[in-house]
Amino acid sequence: MNILLLNGTIVGTKTGVLLNEINQYIEELPESHETRIVNLEDYDLQFVDGRPTDQYNDDMQQLIKEVEDADAYVIATPIFQGSIPGTLKNVFDAVSPLAMRYKPVSIVANGGTLQHHLVIENQLKPILNYFRCMVTPNYVYTHTNHFSTQGDLIDEDVRNRLKEMTRIFNQYMQMSREIEPDKN
């Protein structure tokens, strides 16, 4: 499967650290998968305003294509001001609602307070449900204290939860292969 690991921000390093960790666990799965880490900071993003995809710059067109062509996703996001970053929401606004239908998605997030995990439940999961994604139930939320002052992941419990999330994500990928595509 073609797995897109999406870093939903243009600032900071913790979500990237989490995606690199997950990428290692995906490589350890019994089946091999093609993974690609997409960092939004590497793209010249444009504000999505409803125009046809071919009217955006080359970077936006490439990003939209990469998201729509993936078979499964791990979405990593920081929580800013009690919300997902606008850059991540902008990507969702650019993608066709049919593009992510019945595709597996796992979520990892990082925030400055323990209560920010609710953003996953109240904002990100409803968006993914709109797309009719197959969202794994065991997202991983991390807090600043799970990282060293240099930004390295130092919490063994988080590593174990990431491994378990990857295991369930793999089962969701297997299930998704059996779903007949919706032609509407």
Q: Can you put this structure into words, describing what you see?
A:
InterPro entries: Flavoprotein-like_sf, FMN_Rdtase-like_dom, NAD(P)H-dep_FMN_reductase. It comes from Halobacillus locisalis. The chain has 184 residues and is an alpha/beta fold. β4, α4 and β5 form a beta-alpha-beta unit. It has five helices and six strands; from the N terminus they run βαβαβαβαββα. It has a single domain, classed as Flavodoxin domain (Rossmann fold), CATH 3.40.50. The chain has helices at residues 14-27, 58-69, 86-94, 118-130, 156-177, and strands at 2-7, 34-39, 72-78, 104-111, 134-135, 140-143. Strands 1, 2, 3, 4, 5 and 6 form a six-stranded parallel sheet that branches. Helix content is 38%, strand content 18%. 32% of the residues are buried.
Point out poorly predicted stretches. none
One letter per element, helices H and strands E, the order comes to EHEHEHEHEEH
So, the CATH homologous superfamily?
Flavodoxin domain
Shape: globular
Structural class: alpha/beta
Per CATH, which architecture?
3-Layer(aba) Sandwich
> What Rg is obtained from the alpha carbons, in whole angstroms?
16 Å
GO molecular function, one term: oxidoreductase activity
Organism: Halobacillus locisalis
Domain NADPH-dependent FMN reductase-like: 1-143
InterPro entries: Flavoprotein-like_sf (IPR029039), FMN_Rdtase-like_dom (IPR005025), NAD(P)H-dep_FMN_reductase (IPR051814)
